[in-house]
Amino acid sequence: MNIILTGSLGNIGQPLTEVLIQKGHTVTVISHSPERQSEIEALGAMAAIGALQDADFLTTAFAGADAVYCMVPPNFAAPDNRVYYREIAHSYAQSIRQSGVKRVVHLSSWGADKDHGTGFILGSHDAEGILNELPDITLTHLRAGSFYTNLFGFIGMIKGTGGIFTNYGGDDELAMVHPRDIATAAAEELVNTDKPEAVRYVVSDEFTPSEAARILGAAIGKPDMTWQYVSDEQAQAGLEKNGFLAKVAALFVELNAAIHNGLLREDYDKHKPATMGKVKLADFAKEFAAAYNR
Fold first, then answer.
1. pLDDT of residue 276
2. Beta strand ranges found along the chain (DSSP E)
3. Is-above-0.85 flag for pTM?
4. Count of CB atoms within 10 A of residue 31's CB?
């Protein structure tokens, strides 16, 4: 198959490219960075260099493709997160329509079914809605759990305070995923012609923040480490103190609150994947420890 991947060679893009190449597919990787071209070609893929907001560029890149993987790269510097997501989603929609692509796999997020109260995830909700309007395509939204790699953001806090403090914690319920497991699911869906589902949840492991603190703490030599809940107001103040703009901090706080109050997982709990990904928290703890010790 001729498959187009967006997202360059990121945490998902590189293993996804490698899997598809190994299976004999023709792969083109879209990147905004010319410096990535040689790395992409070294994997055996072709490179298309351009901006996701450029629908004419994408239309040319998508032409003749059997399947396209669409994702919106996070951009915390965007003046308005939802506008940013809609802009790229509309660019994808126009390009898919004009190029005639029939199979689309879109990286979304758990909680994307909600139109309120989920912070950054509202961008994925909007993107799903825009792509859902496309006629005559087979579309699957991969609703990924929270990324394990987000936990790297707590390393500075752990080193400074000895623990993790957020406006979710304790016995709240987490569903997290490793990028490699997302890559595996995306590779399966891109070549799936046997009545693909419209929504597929992708999760590697489930646990509580308290369990995560115990496993990660043991990996970094802090077996007594805890993950404690703080109020929304305390979380907002802490993020702003660490340099986040107030409106960006507010999106993080709203997202975390949706984990704490269960809003984010309501639809996930009704449609859990029959099989979880391979990378469990105990496996990721080794990566976390390596990053912590660097």
1. 97
2. 2-5, 26-31, 46-49, 67-70, 103-109, 138-144, 146-147, 164-166, 174-177, 199-202, 205-207, 227-229
3. yes
4. 22
